[in-house]
Amino acid sequence: MNDLARNLVPGPARPGEAPIQWRPQDRPLRRDVHILADMLMHILAEEVSPRLAEQVEGLRRTCKALREGASPELEHQLEASISALPQEEALRLIRAFSLYFQLVNLAEERHRARRRRQYRLDRPTGQAGSPEDLAVHLREAGVGPEQLQQVLNRLRITLVTTAHPTQTLRRTVIDHHQRIAALLERLDDPRLVPAERRRVLEGLRQEIRLLWQTDELRERRPTVLDEVREGLFYFERTLLEVAPRLLAELERALNDAYPGASLRVPGILRFGTWIGGDRDGNPRVTPEVTRRALLAQKRLVITRYLQHLDRLGSRMSQSVRLASVPPGLTELLESYRAAFPDVYRWAAGRFPGEPFREAWVYARWRLELARPPADPEGVADLDSFSPFRGEPPAPADPRGYPNAAAFLDDLHRIQEALGATSPARPHLDELDLFIRQVELFGFHLAAMDVREDGARVRRAARSLLEAAGLRPPTSPADWNRLLAGPPLLGEPASAGSGVDPELAEILESLRVIRWAQEAIDPPAACAYLISMVHGPEALWEALLLAREAGLFRWEPAPGEHPPAESRVDVVPLVESIGDLRRAGAILEGAWTLPAYQAQLSARGNHQEVMLGYSDSNKDGGYFTSNWEIYQAQRRLMQAARRRGVEITFFHGRGGAIGRGGGPSVKALMGLPPGSLPGAMRITEQGEVLSSRYLQPELAMRNLEQLATAAIWSSVPQARMPAARTVGAHSAWEEAADRLSQLALATYRGLVERPGFEAYFRQATPIAYVERLKIGSRPSSRPDMEEMEGLRAIPWVFAWTQSRHLIPGWYGVGTALERFATESPENLALLQEMAQAWAFWQPLMDNLEMAMCKADLGVARLYARLAPEGKEFLDLIEDEFRRTREWVLRLSGRSELLDGQPVLQRSIRLRNPYVDPLSYLQVEMIRRHRAASPPEEQAVLEDAIFRSINGVVGGLRNSG
Q: Which segments carry the region annotation Disordered (predicted)?
């Protein structure tokens, strides 16, 4: 075994820290990492040379030694040796360390799945956050079955997949990861004989060798349809099967805890998507692309249903000679025999005397007719290598199922008939689970949101008024008159019709919503999201365009108030600090308009509001962003209560802490009181889909934690404060207001300091992050100043790469220190908040995670790339020290993440392997900036891109 595999436990991560301790239960993880690292080193020696393996080990040892004790001389030697590396050797080292992190990540994910299964074997109540654990806690808290059923009936959590920030690794690489994960799982099988174990190990060697020979970078920027295909992969791989199974297991656990209650767990989990519908700043998302994405979703989900029907048909072989035929089934069969005589003749000849199989024949035939043809680019055909994918979509056959509800009706009739075949009321778990699956995913798989840039909506509304010869409205009364009545243009505005092209395209994108409801499934699309909403007019403008596209109609006559018709939910996205503060006033202002009241009434008096974590963080920093989002929810709930509106919050969380990332479970517990039960939506960003949903066990764990936390957060008993904290919330909130003011001033003082933009551009790899071919969307919004227009994703991405991680902590230390010195009582108040406030605890846990991933020693390397780097790094280092000191003081711990030892150990173990990538990245940037021949620049840029991928793997975060 080589040194890299042998020395996996580094010493202290910083001078004076205790060595990392392994738990006995983590021995299988150490074994897997040893095996994978040892194989990698042997493959590097065979594929390139033994010298490469020696260089990898030498770099690792040096970086480990620097972490164990500062040594300017050793650091100088390291930098000198890296600067002397030939370009080809530097590139190979970057790839070697990057591949190492891919393998370690797979080993950790396998261990998480292993530990979950071990918990279920060792503890009757399962792992914390499991359905069994939830059931125990609910009973202990005194939650009765009636109260619990009410919570379940009201609760709806929708996970919305997005493409951006995109997974930096290619799908091809992820496919290799999937095979390695399967082999690691096989290695756990105690029944393996020596020959089988040797074959598994040889399979691992072969996959790692193939990974080394596979280019991890994309040759071209992905198209939107590529991103659609990537998103569908996770539904096909895990979500389609895991989500209904979770709900069944949850129902079983709750009924075991409440015998005789007959609790029913409805579809408390739902899925949505932006992939193919997010037009905000992405000109490549056209109406036609959105249509194709929706058709691909329908094709994928119906293809899976057809597979289930085949299995059920093979199992349900009851004969009329041995089991009774219930009247309900007879009626179903007779209706189909009359409607489809050709199908009946085939079924009668193939399955004589087997009525259930005959029923499945009709169901399968109608389902097949409802399935869209294959897309020319095979968007839903994930595993096909044929260059010919099929024909463009054709009109649906009217004999097929028109929607999922019609299909479900047949499934329920077959389910009821099965129960009537015997006095024992038999049922089939597979059929029950299949019905849950269809109830969850319908024919649409995931509801498609259409998101548009608020500025484009505003321009389109003005263009519409100009085309109709009308002046812009100047008052709410003007808006109300404008929205009452038929569409303004006599004929539908479309490309080539003479109207403004931007208006025509936006109206067509809205028509896609109606088309989806009719051609895909009624729930397939209904949300129209407007970004950068600054006032109530933004919602009225969107409603005006929706009316023109046939999605809204309200034509009151004098003295009459007929109900409106609406097929769309207008969803404002509130994302700047100022707009978050005005969110309650903005929405309440919109709701006062009679036309918008008619819209709300048509949508069940329901209003969805999206809260933007990313842009608010970039605007106001970590603490202020989180606090203003908390406050915005409270104000919006108060406004909704006044107006009789039911509000749904859509949390636009990213994967990184600086974009609202962190465990969703803790975030749910930190919501303002009154947020649950009810409907809630949460984004699942492209960068986290692989770590959460590639492996079935991990997908189940992620969904069960989310579902159980949502249920627990919905019962008042879970939020009942201790006696000493009753009435304390107002004092805590006043303190948070003041802390937010102080943190905002500190953060803005940094980003508005002269020279800061130059520092950001020079001391981070932002220029290369913007050129990565990892997403279809441009990295900046058009028509905006450079820093203002830069999206939050590359902003956070660049700070993470350079190990500053400013979006995850900056400004908090100064805020805490100044607040504590403003009054003698404030320190005790902060300590009370840290111990007892549900909002505070996840906020600080996530901050600690960001600070642990930050490393200002590494940031110093990047700062040297900037002419004024020392000035800014000194400021940042001072604030980092201050923040660390105050966070530890309030938590009562000696080190960051002492309360999360598994995560702490993982980060500290990774650092000696991330550091070489950072040193190499800085050197490549330095060479690239000095290079002149285009050929040399291209080679260096390629190396930088690969180092970025490697750091993402090491830190498990991009943007």
A: 1-22
Average pLDDT over residues 634-643: 96
What is the pLDDT, as a whole number, of residue 397? 85
Residues 6+ apart with CB under 8 A from 44: 52, 53, 56, 96, 212
Distance CA 30, CA 51 (A): 26
What whole-number distance in Å separates Cα of residue 72 and Cα of residue 66?
9
Residue 930 buriedness (CB in 10 A; 0-12 / 13-18 / 19+) = exposed
Strands 552-553 and 565-566: antiparallel
Residue closest to 953 by CA, chosen among 211, 425, 266, 424: 211
- For residue 452, the cross-strand partners are 530
Task: Identify the pLDDT of residue 903.
Answer: 86
658: burial class by Cβ within 10 Å (0-12, 13-18, 19+)? Answer: buried
Q: For residues 142 and 13, what is the distance between their CA atoms, to the nearest angstrom? A: 46
> 3-state DSSP: the chain helix, strand, coil percent, rounded to 5?
65, 5, 30
pLDDT number for residue 654? 72
Mean pLDDT calculated for residue range 93-100: 94
Tell whether the torsion through CA atoms of 761, 762, 764 and 767 is positive or negative: positive
Give the list of residues 6+ apart from residue 112 with CB closer than 8 angstroms, or none: 697, 698, 701
Active site residues: 164, 618
Taking the domains of the chain in order of start, what are their residue ranges? 1-122+171-214, 299-431, 453-652, 741-914
**Whether domain 453-652 has CATH 3.20.20:** yes
CA distances from 525 to 156, 232, 447, 529 (A): 17, 17, 5, 11
The pLDDT of residue 560: 73
CA-CA distance, 856 to 912, in Å (whole number)? Answer: 14
What mean pLDDT is predicted for residues 776-799? Answer: 75
